[in-house]
Amino acid sequence: MPELDPFFFKINSWSFTKHRVWNRCQRQYYFEYIAPYVKSTPVVDPEKIRWLKNFTSKFVVQGQLIHDIIDQQIQLHCENKPMDLAEAINEFTKKVLRYKNIGGETFTEYHNGEKIPGSFYTFIDENGKTCLHTFFGKWPDYMSRECLRHEEYDHFNIGDTGVTVKVDFVGRMPDGTLVLTDWKTGRDDDEYETELQMAAYVLWAMEYYKKSADEIGTELVFLKTGKTKPYAFFEEQLREVQEQIPREFAMMNASYEYGDFPARPSQRECMSCKFAEVCSERKM
Ligand code: SF4
Questions:
Q1: Is 1 within a domain?
Q2: Helix-strand-coil percent breakdown of the chain, rounded to 5?
Q3: Residue 85's domain spans which residues?
Q4: What confidence tens digit (pLDDT) does each residue in 56-78 have?
């Protein structure tokens, strides 16, 4: 086993994001979560890996910009200040323009050699405005919910496995029940394994707020279409997730050897992969 920086073991936990990377390409998982901490004979210079981690896929940026603006607006609401659609749109457009002005050079795809056409910025600008309009259109339904927290990281344990979560919005209904909301900025059929994500949120909220599963609801809100999809979990389903997460985390940590993390190249994934430059198996 290679020697890893002790800091790795302090921050090493399961998260839904890690789960997705792990199931997408384990080599990418290695580069993202292990390679920066390898101290003895690293396959790739950890400094180089840390530098590559500064790039972000254009698809991630697109969703992140909308989340940031929504989060700022929710913060205003939590401080009893008025939300402002015009200001939200203005701020969003400015952010998109900033990326456009530098030609998208912080996008992973740009770093990997893809030209980012002007139409991409037009698309994310229009899509973002649609999402913001939908958010503001739906917000009156949320006014009766007490704002408990939004976009904050938290940790909890399932047995010995640390789990990291970040819920977009936690609201308390007038009857005391909680609703955990996740804003989705993509297509409304883009629900890849979302149940696992939402179940992890419920397990966290049960512990954090000392509530039972039937006092916690979850929902996905698709900002592109306005569709809301609620999820409720039975104890049995939650028990399965309580077994699934430690099992997967054990697999993720069975070895830290580079060769034990097989690559799964595909043109689409490799073009959006931060580590394509140092991956000998990239397909582009
Ligand atoms: S470039 Fe492709 S194969 Fe290599 S780590 Fe990234 S996604 Fe996996």
A1: no
A2: 50, 15, 30
A3: 58-142
A4: 999 999 999 999 999 999 999 98
